[in-house]
Amino acid sequence: MKRRIGIKSLLVAALVSLVGWGGAALAADEAPDALIKRLTKEALDTIEADKAVQAGDVERIMTLLDQKVMPYLNFQRMTSSAVGPAWRQATPDQRRRLETEFKTLLVRTYAGAMSQAKNLTFEIRPLRASPEDKEVIVRTLVKGRGDPVQLDYRLEKTPGEGAGWKIYNLNVLGVWLVDTYRSQFSQEINAKGIDGLIATLSERNKANAAGSAPAPKG
Amino acid sequence: MTPLVAVAFLSGCATGPNANPRDPLEPLNRGVYRFNDAVDRGLVKPVATAYREGLPSPVRTGVTNFFANLQDAWSGVNNALQLKPQATVESFLRFGVNTVFGLVGLLDIATDMRIERHTEDFGQTLGYWGMGAGPYLVLPLLGPSTLRDTAALPVDAHGNLVNQASDVPTRNSATALHLLDRRARLLDASNMLDQVALDPYTFTRDAFLQRRRNVVFDGNPPDEPEDLIPDPSAR
What we know:
Order of helices and strands of chain A: HHHHHHHEEEEEH
Distance between the termini of chain B: 45 Å
Strand content of chain B: under 5%
Structural class of chain A: alpha+beta
Distance between the termini of chain A: 74 Å
Number of strands of chain B: 2
Radius of gyration of chain B: 20 Å
Number of helices of chain B: 10
Helix content of chain A: 40-55%
Largest sheet of chain B: 2 strands, antiparallel
Helix content of chain B: 55-70%
Order of helices and strands of chain B: HHHHHHEEHHHH
Largest sheet of chain A: 5 strands, antiparallel
Number of helices of chain A: 8
Strand order of the largest sheet of chain A: 1-2-3-4-5
Oligomer: heterodimer
Strand order of the largest sheet of chain B: 1-2
Largest interface: A-B, 49 and 40 residues
């Protein structure tokens, strides 16, 4: 008898600690639109509550992003599709640096916009997908002052990983993020190779960190 | 000066085998882009910045609303041309409500009443009926466009109620104010462009073409072959 109670309370303790670590570890696979709904709500709540985020504190945003969003993002796929065919020739080290620099570029960019992201609401538009789909688009509308902003996500099915789905591209006002970098990246790679692209990204990130609007580099 | 020099250098290396099929006139476009950028940095952007800093936000919102209200009327015509009854009715309803109750459009009452805005121009109407966008074009002073949208411009200009004003100075001042208002609202975005873009010309082009295609299909464009990104990391 005693022993059974012991196991039970252990289980409860384990459960509580798991929940404490974040629902993600516990949750079974979510529907893609449910995942986006949860992430968007969490993000908006955080922006609303966190002064450091509102102020565009890059360190803080990066930490939150790593904790809350990265598990549901296939950032490697985002980077590799932006880089294109040259990705195949890249060494593991080059790939890692491309991912890091690309991520920093994006985070720094959007960090500045956080102060404007107050009092936002959003709605998830109806999902048009069949259960056997391996990739889906979840469409949302973010509303604040002015016209609503279309924000869509492409997700791929990743059974057992993330929430069963991972985001690999996002679309703001009809413009896909990854696609917008593809030509620019290939220009750099054609001119200066993969290391050239890494160097350009890294320079740009340093200049952005210094706070001055940098001159576009060829 | 550095951005100009950098862009000039890029225009040298971006032609040839790596030319983008949607931008066959890239060398010419880059020249016009450079010109626009110089005019913007030297004149338009400073004026727009002064406008934004000098006028209180409600006044600027009034200006934005006024021109958006005129656009709603023209959107109504284009929605009708695209046989979209609900969007047509809502556009004209917005125009009516804002003109009558919103002090000739200075206040956007219609949005508070949750009457949705459906912005459409004649370029979108042509696109709706199947006309392709054609090559990318950068127009002097006006910026990014396509061959189709450029062809539609005279019609859009005619449909713009500002151009119906018979008094020429009034018409010109109104047009200048409209462009100034638009540039002032883009200040944050254009500052961001300097940070995010490796090559502002390419970034602007690729974003613009996607955005236009998106509005032609009312936010639901069919997948292009290149949209279905092959995953180079996949084995």
